[in-house]
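User: What would this chain look like folded?
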Amino acid sequence: GEPILAAIVHDGQTILFGGPTALFKIVGNPNSSGLQRVAGPGPLMHNAWCRADDGATYMVTPRGLYRIPPGVGIPQPVSKNIPDEMIGLNPYIGDRATVAYDGRWNMLTIIIYHHSAGLSYFCYKLPEPEQGYPGGFFPMDFSEDIESAVYFPEVQTADASSVVLASGSGTAYQYDRTD
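Assistant: Here's the prediction, encoded as structure tokens.
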């Protein structure tokens, strides 16, 4: 069997469970629906997925970044142009990933720790079809090692993001118009 490393509420009726190679769901009452397998990869680890305002769940998998549409469709890769640092991650040898949705700038903050390459940071700007923007990855750099990114919608303003970043030293950061 596949170990379950993570769980997330996908929508009002569905809870997703998974590990790096498998994804499962429970819809409605667990006593009547049971655990069902969903085609596609699962999340790398417990903090390697998040929900966006459009109701989709995004997750870092060993195959890259995937999107699960609202209503629990089949996970789909978000892009064919996945950064090399996001391919072939393996939590069983120390690789880690964190992803957090930012409602202010409609993007994902992605932190990757590869056991042999160290920390890498990416922004994935979500697609905006109404404006003709297909979405894309952008590398990021920080003055110190950022180890965590957390979604806090309560701190979002017109000028500041809903993501709080934390360094290994305990310093917290928040994106704003000056960063």
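The two ends are 45 Å apart (CA to CA). If you want, I can go into more detail on any region.
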